[in-house]
Specification:
Layout (H helix, E strand, L loop, with lengths): L24 H13 L8 H12 L9
């Protein structure tokens, strides 16, 4: 690191795997597309999307607030 004028950066060797979300990616993408056009106060939060997936689409993953 000391030989580089700036940090070289991180590059993934393979795309991130999301096996639990695989069946829901298109649904989540659609929410994001709709939210991009909506006013800020009408956009969905991560918690709302998680609860929607869990309650209506049978998602059995967890939610961890960071």
């Amino acid at each position: 690191m000391l030989t580089h004028p700036s940090p070289p950066g991180y590059q993934r060797e393979a795309p991130a795997r999301r096996p639990k979300l695989a069946d829901h990616v298109a649904f989540i993408d659609r929410i994001f597309q709709e939210d991009a056009e909506a006013p800020a106060k009408q956009r969905h939060t991560a918690r709302q999307i998680f609860e929607w997936l869990r309650d209506e689409r049978g998602f059995d993953g967890g939610y961890r607030h960071m």
